[in-house]
Amino acid sequence: MLRIKNVESGYGRLKVLKKVTMHIRAGEIVTIIGANGAGKTSLLKTVSGLIPARSGEILFDMKEIGTLPPEKIVFLGCSLVPEGRQLFAPMTVKENVLLGAYPQYRKKRGDQVRDDLERVYGLFPRLKERERQLAGTLSGGEQQMLAIARALMARPRLIMMDEPSMGLAPLVIKDIFSIVTRLRGEGSTVLLVEQNAKAALGIADRGYVLETGRIIMQGTAEDLLSNREVQRAYLGRDLDAEGTM
Amino acid sequence: MYWEPDKECMNREDLEQLQLEQLQSTLNRVYSHVPFYRKKFDALGIAPEDVGSLADLARLPFTTKADLRDNYPYGLFAVPMREVVRIHASSGTTGAPTVVGYTRNDIRTWSNLVARILTAGGVTKDDVVQIAFGYGLFTGAFGLHYGAERIGASVIPASSGNTERQIQIMKDFKTTALVSTPSYALLVGETMQEMGIPVSALSLRYGLFGAEPWSDAMRQEIEGRLGIVATDNYGLSEVIGPGVSGECKERQGLHINEDHFLVEVIDPEELRPVPPGETGELVITSLTKEAFPMIRYRTRDLSRLLPGPCPCGRTGRRMGRVTGRTDDMLIIKGVNVFPSQIERVLFEIEGTEPHYQIVIDRKGAMDEATVLVEAGESIFFDQMRRQREMVDTIRKRLAHELGISVVVKLVEKKTLGRSEGKANRVIDNRKL
Predict the structure, then answer these.
(1) How many CB atoms lie within 10 A of CB B357?
(2) pLDDT at B423
(3) Alpha-carbon distance A60 to nearest alpha carbon in chain B (angstroms)
């Protein structure tokens, strides 16, 4: 579904991504794990068109999207749930959700929006309960749900999520991750960027480890979970304390 | 029957994407974790980022057996020793053996790759697999053992030797698949005949053979004598062990596990790729190994890539049988032997000249190696007892060094040919 080859990008003179090559097949949950500043967010922003790829190719459903503006990429079916939710706090929950339906109106499919809204409310009943409430008054977990709901309104086939667990309590994280699994069950493909590597690998099929803009490892979630380097660097296991020699 | 159909039957485009991803991450890892590779890349002015396609592989430096020796024992490991759960070794040309390591993931990968080859050769979880490779430092026995267990087959770690007992086990335990060298399979057939045990008394159905070159004529003989379907498989410890490639039941070449290994065929003199389909030296790069990644390893094995798809449905390209070596390594009874190893042993024994000849015959099914050694001035041919002692010493030391037993004969000084080059040291009378 998504195939990235030798992508490089960055900010100004700073090159963040160095020849990144990766792919996602339809129906997969793929996670990108890595430390702060490894380039995870830059990678999602590059795929979304928010920052330009300086070189390499980005194929979405075999179509080159590396040079397209963000809105065109959303139109094609690839949506981003940005880091920090990026909601419109003074607007109501419903207004925020409907903003995500913008591409549907542009495609003259406004008639579908009502159904889509029902479907999204079905996934997140709490948002329906609070549809008239201002987004800024929601809890962190609810805000994250709202950000995902808004992205879903564009009917993406690939949904990219940037740190959905950030700042959330463990139980809430569990909720969010079970929603990710459910989305896949309903036919979506998910690219998940996470610092919470353990939780992400727990639901992902495959993963890539990004380190200073380079992919240093990839494999099935099972392989990465049992890799000692991943355990030490990203799963917070203190192997010395465990007395392993 | 496939073991991992999504991998074994992957379309070319997906495979090449995967290979590029794996190649790039392997290069990133070896560059940061293995000083040997970093130095070599730096010397050539190449960074991992310079590799943007599979074709760029050709810009990377080769790795040779000598590099492995220079970094003996652990210099090329890419993970700390605490992450290594297994160590194997193989013989080296001049003393230090080649040491290879595996992480827990590597063992799992290895087991899966061997499981693919066993499955391709007909083995299922219902089979009883007898492993008649020597268990020890060599990768053969353990590789096949773990692969067969992975499938869920019942594994008999019979190890090598004691052929009559092997046959008894085969008969009593109802072994359905034999794993060994092809020459050992022939010996089993012959010994059965001597013991008066007909093929019908056994339950054998499949044979998976490797670790030495063999021919289709030999295959037919083995299949006839043992009543089995015999397949060939290939691997080497420097790369992983068995599991690099193996035949399916079509027996039209060995499918390479291309989602784990990049295989190039080069001209060993020019060091450039040979035209497609032509015979050359296999050069192998590992794509998924953690503990002991290998970049462009010169295997010294001669083979070629076969054109076209295989009717079995696997999409992995196929290689032909290994037809020979580009160095002087001999494979005797499935064990790698370098003439230089023999030379070194003789050098250390007083009373011998460093002139020797190795004669290899195939007695029935098995290899027999005879080492002819020139006696020095100090040995008098009228002193039988001293002669016998010397022969005994040489034989023991050689067995210790080589890991196989050889026949030793003393000959008079200046009776062996001189100055005709290395080839003269080896007389290989085997016809496969």
Answers:
(1) 20
(2) 43
(3) 14
Rounded to the nearest angstrom, the minimum Cα separation between A218 and chain B is 7
How many Å lie between the alpha carbon of B428 and the closest alpha carbon of chain A? 46
Instruction: Report the alpha-carbon distance of residue B121 to residue B206 in Å, rounded.
Output: 7
Interface of B with A (CB under 8 A): 14, 17-18, 20-22, 24-25, 28-29, 32, 48-49, 51-52, 79, 82-83, 103-105, 108, 288, 290
Residues of B in contact with A229 (CB under 8 A): 79, 83
What pTM does this model have?
0.87
Q: How far is A209 from chain B (nearest CA, A)?
A: 9
Residue A79 pLDDT greater than 80, yes or no: yes
pLDDT of B390:
84
Domain containing A14: what range? 1-77+159-166+189-240
Q: Which domain holds residue B192?
A: 1-327
Q: What is the ipTM of this complex?
A: 0.90
Number of domains in chain A: 1
Contact yes or no for A214 and B105 at CB 8 A:
no
- From the list A214, A223, A228, which residue is nearest B28 (CB)? A214
| Residue where one domain finishes, among candidates B295, B327, B359 | B327
- φ and ψ at residue A8, rounded to 5 degrees: -125, 140
With tokens 């050709």, the residue in question is B58
Q: Which residues of B touch A227 (CB under 8 A)?
A: 103, 105, 290
